[in-house]
Amino acid sequence: MKLLIEQLTKEFGDKKVLNQIDLELTTGVYGILGANGSGKTTLMRILASVMKPTSGRVLLDGEDIAVLKEQYRDLIGYLPQQVGLYKSFKAEKFLLYIASLKGIAKEEAKVKVAEVLELVGLGEYKKEKIGKFSGGMKRRIGIAQALLNDPVILIVDEPTAGLDPKERIRFRNLLSQISSNRIVLLSTHIVSDIEYIAKEVLILKEGQLVKKETPQKLLHGLKQKVWSLVVQQEEVLSFQRNYRVSNIIRLEEGVHMRIIHEGKPHSRAKEETPNLEDLYLYYFDEEESG
Amino acid sequence: MSRYQNEDMEIDETLKELEREFNLSFTDYDVQYPNEEQMMMTIEQLRPLVPQKKKQWIAKKSGVSNILKKSIYEFFYISPIFWSINGLFLIIFFLAALVGKENPYHLMIILAPLPMLTGLFEVLKSRQDGMEELERSFLFSFQEIILSRLFITGAFNLVINMILTAFLSLVYPQMELGKLLLSWITPFTLITALSFLIVNRLRNIYMITAWNVIWIGCGFISVSSFMDKLENAPVSVYVMIIVVAILCILGRMMKMYKGDFEYEAVD
């Protein structure tokens, strides 16, 4: 299975939110990294056929999804960034309703609903009203509805936003568990969400695809760009002004700083192994602070 | 014969010969008119490449049956508040008709479109509950979902109106059936047409609330002289309103069905 994105552009008035994106996706987890307003959500919406592109097209195994229409929608599972859910519905009733909207036959739906509720750990809450659920439980109901039709393409937009660390880990493990034999697109700005599960990381910046690489290759590109250094308290401000500082830890002997810079920032600086957080900062720090 | 005349004749002959050769060489390029069998063979070979109208019709028919099928499902997921409110309206109607001895024509005019009006909250619940984006990604298209909700609300409204018509005809045998029918079909079709407009263009829950309040408020505080004028309006006015409203409903339905329902949110 192959999802091919060709010259995809989306404009809202004068604003170009996506600018000629070319992309090829096959089975596996893809993490989409980008700052707010980078076009992640718009890309996800177009792939989920919620929105039409201004130009360009998306092909599934050579066929345009705009032509496939419901045939394509039958294959996808989508969890938008913000989803309200019908709060007056009980979890089981809500999923049965969604199953009906996904065209799943009644008997099959009952089995699938029980299955996905167990998968997301909400089996014992099936008779509880969604309105009473915590943020994490609502996200889990969100992913449960996305899995109801056993989708071959799973699109989840910022699934861990607003979740506490425990719920985030649970969610990450859940995604990892369900990702085999599917194309999973996961958009986030929390890099730890994708660090260990993504086959490839896509970096979107101002509507353009800046990079598409495996995490290892992306991190390799940061070699000799991440440094650590212990400085005195009075030097901290100066370093913060002149360099991108990804982390500061106060120690007895001074302040330990993690710096991202093209060259060695100081003679005492030691090279560090880069991680995806450094990578995010490398690409987006100027944009976010600016 | 002069020498020049001989030469002319020779040239003429040569030219004629050339013309003959020229014509003969063109016979190689002659396209034989095909016989019936060859024509049919060509048509048959090209048939798979021609988009078939019949298939389009099947697709449309399956879309309509999708809406009907979906409407049945929707019925079981309609909010209990909708049933309660409409139950309350019915009780008020019966009390006003039987105890209050209110003019039944006036009562029908007020009550006839209320299920449709209150049903708009159900129709647009996706937007109200933040589910619109998600519902646009499902197998049933968003248009089909909205149309099926409109259909079930409209059908419920129609059934209620027919029951009330039967009830009033039994309680007040002296009532004119034609007048009674017009007194509910007119506001019902008019409000349904406006509902389609709200669903298509405005999609705003506050608009629906305002619309409900205006209709119910106007209905209850209207002075009886105004209602009398309305009741005694010529039949042609009623018919004209009904025809225009039905045309608007059909037009809107077609537009929605064809997909004129873009998602508006931006990144």
What does this protein look like?
The complex is a heterodimer of chains A (290) and B (267). Chain A is built from 10 helices and 14 strands. Chain A has 290 residues and is an alpha/beta fold. Chain B has a domain at 86-257. Chain B contains 13 helices and no strands. In chain B, helix 5 runs parallel beside helix 10 (177-202). The longest helix of chain B has 30 residues, at 142-171. Chain B is elongated. The chains are: A alpha/beta (290), B mainly alpha (267). Chain A binds chain B through residues 12, 17, 37, 39-42, 45, 48-52, 69-70, 73-74, 76, 78-80, 82-89, 93, 97-98, 100-103, 145, 149, 155, and chain B through 70, 73, 77, 79, 125, 129-131, 133-141, 145, 262-263, 265-267.
In CATH, the topology of the largest domain in chain A is named: Rossmann fold
For the record, the CATH class of the largest domain in chain A is Alpha Beta
Count of alpha/pi helices of chain A? 10
How much of the sequence lies in strands of chain B comes to: under 5%
Brief digest:
Chain A is α/β, with parallel strands linked by helices. In chain A, 33% of the residues lie in helices and 29% in strands.
